[in-house]
Amino acid sequence: MTMRSKGGGSDDLFRSLYDRYSARMLRFFRTVFRVSDAEAQELTHDSFLRFYRTMHEYRGEAEWALLETIARNVGYNRVRSLTTIKRGAVRPESLDDTESSRKDPVAVQQHPLDRMIDAERRTRLRREMAALPKGQRQCLQLWLDDWSYEDIATTLRISVDAVKSRLRDARRLLRERLGDEGVLPEE
Amino acid sequence: MTDKSDWKDASRELRADERRKLGDPPTAEELQAYYRGELSEQEEDRIRDLIVAYPELVRMYREPAPDAPRPGDSDYVGADQVASGWRTLQQRLRQPSPARVQAVRGEAQRGVLLYVPTAVAAVLAVICFGLYVRAEGRARYFAEQSRQPLILAAAQQLDPDGNRGSASPLPLRKDGEAYLLKPVLVNEFRYSRYQIELRDSNDALLWSNRDAHPADDEHAFQIVVPHTFLTEGQTYRLGIFGVDGQKSERLASYEFKVPVE
User: Fold this and answer.
1) Which of B1, B61, B94, B150 to mutate against chain A (most A CBs within 10 Å)?
2) Chain B contact present for A136, CB below 8 A
């Protein structure tokens, strides 16, 4: 393997980085990517191996920052590949949703007519949300996921003011198109 | 009045439609490029759509890292466990990685260049002798190179043609003694084996490997190509095929150009 031709100094550095940061990386995978202990261990090793392969470029700076970036990519791509496999099999359910924000199980037992009315209302809401200008719809969907203005702004690479303005416009448009039914709840 | 859970449900249904329409989530590399502002406007727009379609993944990607566990924490890892983890990692390091497609060497060339039909040699002895000497020297050079350590340039990611960025061939950077090419395969990892082909601009096959595997978790293959294998100023094309028994399916192609020094 090409990597084994590295000098002893590199190997010592690699060992030292592993000793110092492997525990932190394990915790990182468990808490950020919510994987099991065994998966966290495997992902930690994957990340260190990936670092080892490019260690010749490493200049000895920002140790954890570099390892974290590698770990983040490795973890993300693992979760992403799982999502890709499952895509279409289940309806999307945000990990950020709280239990209270999901439909009450009692609703399953409601009268068929009420269920039909609910379904029709959701269809109207979905149709009008889809009809919003894209920027407004994107802000609205992330806001409905309980993202802060700052997080939405950073993620969409726009200003916080732009987020607020788009949400304001979205509220107005939905109200115009759906009447009272289109009133979005306040914060 | 419509409550927030109704809106959330409607948004979730809308998101399901979006996912079906847009396809798979962005890769980590795409997210990095997006946040660094390195994408074209059109590409940035595409990634933004995907982010809104897969917000839980993106939030995960951006979630701050926790501090290191301290003694007393439930997930504190003692020195024994670290040492045990290190031993496991060493075992993995010692295993030859199937992901690494260390394939493009001079060996294949050697056989081809040395094979000069005897009949032709008899007729064109002088010319062939010259060619032979040249070929022998070249083969020796390649063979020698294949036994020597190579200094690799930084990995150069190749994105599938038509998937990202410009349609023109990617110019390679010429550092080190060999190129480390990383063709990224987007969401086609359902095959147990892959075939990789390298062709020149005339579509002549220069090299092929029928038992390639992507690098662990990188969604990319890694191919080491000595500088001497490629000609300056020439354009080349890599093709990746999924292999299923005797059948193979083209999955992606990548065009790149070798710079002139």
Assistant:
1) B61
2) no
User: Which one of B29, B58, B217 has the shortest CB-CB distance to A155?
Assistant: B58
Angle at B40 between CA B34 and CA B46, to 5 degrees: 65
- Is the model's pTM score more than 0.80? no
Tell me how far CA of residue B43 lies from CA of A37, B33, B39, in angstroms.
36, 10, 6
Smallest Cα–Cα separation from A46: which of B187, B154, B219? B219
d(CA B250, CA B183): 14
- Please indicate if any CB of chain B lies within 8 Å of the CB of A122: yes
Estimate to the nearest angstrom the gap between the alpha carbon of B58 and the chain centroid. 23
Chain B environment of A18 (Cβ under 8 Å):
82, 85-86, 89
Alpha carbon of B165: minimum distance to chain A alpha carbons (Å): 20
Q: With contact defined as beta carbons under 8 Å apart, do B179 and B227 qualify?
A: yes
Give which of A155, A178, A186 to mutate to test B binding, by max B Cβ within 10 Å.
A155
CA dist A173 and B171 (Å) reads: 48
Higher pLDDT, B145 or B175: B175
B130, B198, B77, B258: which is closest to A23 by C-alpha?
A: B77
pLDDT in tens, A37-78: 888 999 999 999 988 888 877 777 788 888 998 999 898 888
DSSP state of A146: T
Is B4:A101 a contact under the CB 8 Å cutoff? yes
Q: Do A101 and B5 touch (CB under 8 A)?
A: yes
Mean pLDDT of all residues in B122-141: 68
Q: Could you give the CA distance from residue B68 to residue A155 in angstroms, rounded to a whole number?
A: 27
* Candidate from A23, A50, A138 with C-beta closest to B48: A138
Q: What is the ipTM of this complex?
A: 0.74
